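User: structure tokens for this one?
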Amino acid sequence: MATKSRIGYLPEESYLYRYLNSRETLDFFGNLFHLDRGERNNRTEQLLEMVGLSQTRTRAVGEFSKGMQRHIGLAQALINDPDLVILDEPTSGLDPIGCREIKDLILALARRGKTVVLSSHLLSDVEDVCDRVVILYGGKVQAMGTLKELLATPDTLRITTPVLPRETMERVLELIRQDVATDKVRVDNPTQNLESYFLEVVEKAKQAAAQTSGAQSGARVAAYLRGEAEAKPAAERILERLTLPQAAPISAAPAAEAAPAVDEKKLAALSKVAEPSPPPKPAPAEPQVDLAKADEKLSSLLGKPKP
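Assistant:
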């Protein structure tokens, strides 16, 4: 149980209780990890704000779009502040803004020293966030290594400069052509990817304060996930410890971080609202019927002699 409490998991399909709302869903999963009420409330508010669902906290999860379900699914995977986070297709069904926010969150978790295992068919997502990559095909590992090792083209060199005057460009090309054939030299303008361009367009559109429905652009990473401590050294990361030769067994779950200060008045009000209502009064017992007397009364009414 101590090991499981350190793991967060987002499956490809979110299995959620459709009649619970966002807040109730996170409260339920927080309760599974035995978080006290104050800590559950605190983390729930931070996570809903982070994934952009703070305006839909009372809406039933069963009414969510697939993208919104991914948002709440990611929040429940982080409610216990896990050390190992396993994400299966985390950006499935998300718009470009949501995809970028999920990737920024993964990078933030990695900077804090958490180990994130990402499984995805969207290779652009993998390229944006992963340190090491494993390519599986036919049930076997076909390639493995860092992105720099796998993607670098060692026999080609790129030089990037600001726009140069034509005369300077001609002199540079003339020098290069002394060692390289003309058809091997190419001069063009660097381009950005479509995602970056899209986000720039959206950022400009935000200035018009356009309204939207459903999940909104999330806020910064939840405070308890950012933490105050510096990132753990590489040897402390779970996967690396498992793969190191003669690695020591993983220690028991670390002591939980101190819960943020809670406003006592607000907590008392929440506790009062959450107090269970008194049990209903038991229904009065049904009167017992004397069958002999009832039969005698019925016979007198009908004018029939008693048996």
